[in-house]
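Researcher: I'd like a structural prediction for the single chain below. Treat it as a standalone chain; there are no partners to consider.
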Amino acid sequence: MIELSASSLGNRVKQHIHQPTQNNKQMDEISNALRSLKMPGMAHYWTTMQETRQHDSLSLKDGLQLLIQAEQDSRTTSRNSRLVKKARFRYQASISEVIYDGKRGVDKQKVLNLATCDYVRKGVSVLITGAAGTGKSWLGTALGHQACMNGHKVAYYNLYRLFEEIALARISSTLHRFFAKLAQTDLLILDDFGMKVLDGQQLLDFMEIIEDRHGQKATIIVSQLPVANWYDVMKGNTTAADAILDRLVHTSVRFELKGASMRQKSNIKSTETHRND
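Model: Treating it as a single chain, here is the predicted structure.
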């Protein structure tokens, strides 16, 4: 039987007490180092591993794989959030929320094909038409949001607000830079096309935007007017109108939404809910 002196026993107790504290300090130093290296995903997961004691049961290889994956996921989430913010969408919508209804013109297979964002990579146009309240802008936004989730740069404009920005850029002599920025955007969503006839300069600007993007970058155009009536909006310059429609119509994916206004249905449902309350 081994006998321990009081001083020896005390030293062992102190070592036992201080060792976890020392380990925690080392773990915190690693976490802080990861943050200083701008690896917040790794730092967060490292802290989680400590709290769950997961690091004790993992090999170095497995632990590194988990940390790297956590950092990749964190960077993807941050990138997607920045892309959505810069897109300036009018609505909050996503592909997962789309209600498929062939009678309304929302074809499931067509939407799912677009959800792969292959059309963005190929520079294909999407034309969404229908009466007010049928969900045109919402569907366009859902497709735009999906593009952001796939790492694409998206810009959402009301068409006439876009013309206002173009006019300001022309006045400030930054028009070339503005058009170059639009041309580099992977997906440009133009809402409310056809609300009024395009004047001479607007039509020429619109033609330049479409020309720059044709076959290179994707464009979604949302309109209450059927595509067959688009020519009337651009009849001030028939040559430009022919060029624009030739580039948009023949190779585009098209949705013609039908049915009652979704806004009216939403209002009715809300009213009924309040009555039941």
